[in-house]
Every structure is written in C-alpha cells, then in structure tokens.
C-alpha cells in the first residue's frame, strides 16, 4: 500500500513512519523538515500553508498528522495551518482515504454522567473549546469526515520518548522543590502511548471498514499522583508533587491567562485552562472500538519512556 504521512518529521508522524515501514508499506513522508532516509521511504518538503502540493504522487491512503499545536497562538495561526492545511491535503489527494490524527480535546470537559467518567465516540465535540487548538481540531474533523471512508483517531495526552510538547510543560511546573500538579492526587488521567497511536494509525490504513471515529488511549487511566511520580522518576527530577486541587488550579489558570493577555505575552503562562483540563478533570476514554474493530489492544502505561534523550528535537510538525 502507498501511504502519505503529513507532519512526518514530528513526534507522532515519526512514530507512524516507523510502524508503516515495519509493515512493508511504501511511504511518502511530507513535512517542513527533513526525515532520515530509509528503504521504502520518499520525502517531499511541504508547508501546508502554501496550498496544495504540486505534482503529488498517487497514494492509497493519507495519514494526516500535521497540525499547529501551540494552544496559546491566535486562531488565525491555527486556522491557517490546521484548518486550511487540511483543505490543502484533501485537495492534493481527492481520491485517497484519509486517516486523521485528531485529539480527545474536542470532547466537552464533563460530557458523561457515568460515574467512571467514561467518554465514548458518540459524544459530540464541545461547543465551548478552551483554546484555539481544540477549536481547530474540531474544524479539521468536520472537513475530513466529509470524505468517504475517512477515519478520525482521537488520542489524549500522547506520551513517549522525546515528547516535545507535554513533557516540557510538565518540566516548567517544577518550583522550589515541588512539582506543581494542577489537580487532585486522585484525578484520573488517561494517557496515550505514541507507539499505540502509531499502531492504531497503521490498522486504520489497512482496514477499509474502520469505524469513522475511534478513541486511542492506554489500557487504563492513572491517578494524577502516579503520573507525577512516574514522570519525575523517568526524568530524575527530585521535586515532590504538590497537588493544588481543581478549584485552585482553575482560578490560577484564568488569572495567569488574563494577565498574560493583558500584557500581550508571546509565550503562554506556566498554567493555562487548557492544561488544567488535562490534569484536573477525570476523563476516561472508551477504547472498545479500538480493540474490537481495529484489533489494536492497548497496553499498560509505561511512564519510564516519558523522558527526553540526547537526540531530542524541537518545533514538532504535529502532536495531538
């Protein structure tokens, strides 16, 4: 099978390349930055904001993993990269199946009365996104789902070696001997291993009868206390966790965001409402379709791999 992968030089895109190539597929990697040459891999440089790719080679499936990931940037940036970029991808390959790497951030914060905090794929996207990022991802999904045979994968808090987005944010929370955790120790955090996400992408490419929308998450959620301990251990941080509790976390995030916007800060504050939504609200994602329809079995979360290595890079092309 011939598969194109957008955002191929990013954290998620790179993992997808590894799995697709290991399964014997011919892969066209498209990204702003180069990727390491390998057998079965062709690379084309493409900035999605420039419009459709000129003279695109034919492909059977497009894995669309490119998106703008900085939630602090204004809507215009997200619209240009994530939304208009998706239109460019669809125009470039009008006859190909599309597998979109989206995000569970499109779900409402509190959409289920289930005491297990369980969210299934039939819950509609929120009408009140906390930042430009989930707003753009929801718009991206609407565009892709109009394509026959399209599949939307929704991971949550993707983790693994050299994560360039979430781990640096956690590292910023180290303060005076404490790792500040915006939530309660018992908040349930459901993570997604980047390797699991890549396996789900490959399965969706290979299965033309895949469900239209599929949650992708590890076998079980973890208590925030376990996440804090595991990440600190993996990165040799000596700071002890300090759990603020949800009310304090929300109040601090809103105050910090307000001050940052008044001062027109170019960088986000150490705490944002979007970040708090990942750690202060228990949300568990139903992975029945992932297991039963895609045949991908989630594994237990391995936090020992959520760390930086010497080969870590910056400026990811994509990350949900």
Automatic annotation (TrEMBL):
Pfam families: Epimerase. It comes from the Bacteria. GO terms for molecular function: aldehyde dehydrogenase (NAD+) activity. GO terms for cellular component: cytoplasm. Residues 3-217 form the NAD-dependent epimerase/dehydratase domain. This is NAD-dependent epimerase. It comes from Terrabacter aerolatus.
């Amino acid at each position: 099978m011939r598969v194109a992968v957008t955002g191929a030089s990013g954290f998620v895109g790179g993992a997808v390349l590894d799995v697709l190539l290991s399964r014997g597929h011919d892969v066209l990697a498209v990204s702003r930055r180069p990727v390491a040459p390998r057998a079965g891999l062709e690379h084309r440089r493409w900035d999605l904001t420039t419009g459709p790719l000129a003279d695109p080679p034919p492909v059977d499936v497009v894995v669309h993993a490119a998106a703008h990931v900085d939630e602090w940037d204004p809507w215009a940036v997200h619209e240009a990269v994530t939304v208009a970029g998706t239109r460019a991808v669809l125009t470039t390959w009008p006859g190909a199946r599309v597998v979109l790497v989206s995000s569970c951030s499109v779900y409402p914060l509190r959409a289920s009365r289930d005491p297990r905090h369980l969210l299934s794929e039939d819950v509609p996207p929120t009408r009140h996104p906390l930042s430009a990022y989930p707003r753009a991802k929801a718009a991206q999904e609407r565009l892709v789902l109009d394509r026959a045979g399209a599949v939307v994968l929704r991971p949550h808090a993707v983790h693994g070696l050299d994560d360039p987005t979430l781990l640096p944010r956690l590292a910023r929370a180290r303060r005076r001997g404490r790792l500040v955790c915006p939530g309660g120790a018992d908040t349930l955090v459901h993570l997604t291993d980047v390797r699991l996400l890549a396996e789900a992408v490959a399965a969706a490419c290979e299965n033309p009868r895949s469900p239209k929308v599929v949650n992708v998450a590890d076998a079980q959620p973890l208590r925030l206390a376990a996440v804090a301990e595991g990440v600190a251990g993996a990165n040799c941080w000596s700071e002890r966790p300090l759990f603020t509790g949800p009310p304090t976390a929300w109040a601090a995030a809103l105050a910090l965001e307000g001050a940052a916007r008044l001062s027109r800060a170019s960088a986000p504050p150490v705490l944002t409402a979007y970040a708090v939504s990942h750690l202060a609200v228990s949300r568990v994602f139903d992975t029945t379709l992932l297991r039963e329809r895609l045949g991908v079995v989630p594994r237990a979360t391995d936090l020992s791999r959520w760390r930086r290595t010497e080969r870590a890079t910056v400026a990811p092309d994509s990350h949900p």
